[in-house]
Amino acid sequence: MEMETEVSGEKEKKQIVVLLIGPPGSGKSTFCDSVMKSPHRPWSRICQDIINNGKAGSKSQCLKMAIESLKEGKSVFIDRCNLDKEQRSEFVKLGGPQVEVHAVVLELPAQVCISRSVKRSGHEGNLQGGRAAAVVNKMLRSKELPKVNEGFSRILFCYNDADVENAVKTYSMLGPPTRIMNFFKKVSAVPASSSNEATNDATTPKANEKTEIVRVSPSKKLGSVVPTLAFPSISTADFQFDIDKASDIIILSLVKAKASRKNIDSGRFFTFVGDITKLHSQGGLHCNVLANAANWRLKPGGGGVNAAIFKAAGPDLEAATRARANTLLPGKAVVVPLPSTCPLHNAEGITHVIHVLGPNMNPNRPNYLNNDYTKGCKILREAYTSLFEGFLSTVQDQSKLPKRINQATMSDSGAEDSERNKKYKGLQDKARTNNLESGSVDDAGDSGKKMSKGWSSWALALHIIAMHPEKHENVVLESSDNIVVINDQYPKARKHVLVLARQESVDGLEDVGSANIQLLEEMHDVGMKWIKRFQDEDASLIFRLGYHSVPSMRQLHLHVISQDFESDHLKNKKHWNSFTTSFFRDSVDVLEEVKSQGKANVESEAVLKGELRCNRCRSVHPNIPKLKSHIRTCPSQFPHHLLQNSRLLARPESSN
DNA sequence: GTTCTAGAAC
DNA sequence: GTTCTAGAAC
C-alpha cells in the first residue's frame, strides 16, 4: 500500500489492483463506490457486468481495461465475482514492482446476498428477482477462498457490515503519507484503529508493550510481496527488562545488522502503534512475519504480545510451534511457518511467526538474571540477532532449514550451544545460496507429517485411547469416567502400565494446574492399586509412580513402572534417563507441588542427554548394554531421596 | 571386524 | 514413541 511503501522509504507509490471476491449481492459494487468517494487516490472500477457498452462483457475485456487503467496511473477494482483461483489468476498477474494485488473477500451470509439480489431492481447485470437465489447458491458451492500463495500481497476478509465499513475506510484512507517515527520511542497508547502515527509522549512502557511495533523491510523484493517483519519490544514487559537499556540494544543490533547484512536497510524501520495481530485489518500494514515475545515453554498465555498472538493464531500456531521446538533459550529465536488454514494467515497475511526469548529480569520467572545487565544486554542483543537471522531465513529458502530446531534445554551449556548454532548457521548459509521464492505457503508443509494439534500421528495414540476407551477394549485394562489404564506398548521394565487422564487438553505435566488436583489424586490412587495387584503376584517388585517432565505422547499419563528395568524395549539413553533422572517426576511430588504452588515443576529435556547412572548406586556406565548388565546385579540400596515420602513403593518384607 | 549411538524417517 | 542405519567408538 501507499502508506507502507512510503514509510519504508521507497520513492514509488504503488498502484493497487483490488479483486473483490463475493457472490452477487455481497456488496462488491457498493464497496467500490464507497471507496471511490474518497478523493485521495484515483480509482477505476472495472465491472464485468457493464464493461461491454453497458452490457455484460468478458474476463479478457476486464483485463484489458485494467491494464489501461494501470497505465493511466490509476488503481483498479476488479468488480466481478472472482470466486475461484482460476478466475482470479490472470488478474493476480497484473502485480509487479509498481503494482500490488489485493483481495477483498466479502464473506457475508448467503442469506444476505440472496435477499439483496432478489430485492434489488435495476441491477447492472440484470440479476435480480427469483433467478438470483439459484445463481448465488450455485456460485457459493464452487467458491474457493483466496490464499496468499496465489500471489496476493494482501487479503482482507469481511464477514459483516462492520468489517466492510472498516475495509472501506482502510482503502479510502490510502494516500496520506505516514510519518516515519523515531526509532523505538516510548509512545503513548493510541487506539489502534484511529491512527498509524505514534506520538512522542513518554509514558509507562508497560501500557504500550502490546502495541509498540517495529517494522523491517529488506530491500530485496520478491515478486510484489515485500517481506516485512513486525516485532514487539522483547523482554521489557513480562521480563521486566529496563526499557532504556533495551532501546540502546536494539539500535546497536540494527546498526550491526545493517553493517553485516547488505539486504537489511535500517532506513526501513519504523514504529507502529496498534495491535500486532491486526496490523493489516486495523493498521493497513502488510507484514508477513510476526515476531513474538515468547515464553520459554513456547506456550500460549501469559500477558501481552504472546497471549495476543497465540489467541489470534489459534491452535494452528501451537501445533506448528510444537513441530519445531518445545522450549526456547533466552537469546534464541525459532521460526514457525503458519499453516494457510490459520486465521492470522488468511486475514492478516502472516506467513511466519518467529518466537523470541529475551533475558529475564523478573524474579518470578525462570532464568532470572538478578539485575545482571551485563549478561542481560548480551542475551538481549543475541535475541534480536536471532530474530533477524530468523526473519532472513524466511526471505531465503525455508525448505533447506532444519525441520526442527531443538532448543529444548535451559542449561548454560555454552559448548553445546555454539555447536548447535554452527550447525544452524551452516544450513542457513547453504540456504542463502539457493535463490528460491520466499514465504511461499507450501514451504510450511513439512514432509507429509500431519499435525492436527502439534503432535505427530504416532504421538496421538494415548489420546485416542483416552478419548474412546470403548473402541480399544483389547488394550484397556481398566477405565472410568476420568482415567484409562493400559499396558505400555513398549514396557521398559517387567511391569509398566500407564494411567491416562481422560480429560481433553491436559496433554502433559505442563498443562496441569490446581483445577486438576482431583484428577491427579485419582490417577495416583489407581496407580497404587495396580502396584498392589502386581506386588500381590510378586512381592519382590519395587515401583515408582510418576510423570515425564515433557511427554513424547499427547495426553497426561502416569507411569507405573517396576524398578528392575528388565526389558528389551529399554534401548537408549533417553529411555533410561527419562525414568531415572529428575526428568521423572514422582506422583507424590507432583501432587504436593500442584497443591502448594498451583503447578508442577518440570525438568528440562537436557537431562535426558546426561550420563548413564545406575538407579541404585549411581555409578556411571559407558553404554546401555554395560549399564543393563550392571543393574541386573547391583546390590546397593536405592538413593536416600527415593526412600522418602513413599516415592519408592516396595513391600516391607522385601527390603530392596 | 563388531558394538553402539544418534539422527532421520516414520 | 519406534525403526532403520550410517558411522563413531571400540
UniProtKB/TrEMBL annotation:
One of its GO terms (cellular component) is nucleus. It is found in: Nucleus. Its main location: nucleus. GO terms for biological process: single strand break repair. Coiled coil: none annotated. Keywords: DNA-binding, Metal-binding, Nucleus, Zinc, Zinc-finger. Residues 417-432 have a biased composition (Basic and acidic residues). This is Transcription factor bHLH140. InterPro entries: Histidine_triad_CS, HIT-like, HIT-like_sf, Macro_dom, Macro_dom-like, P-loop_NTPase, Znf-C2HE.
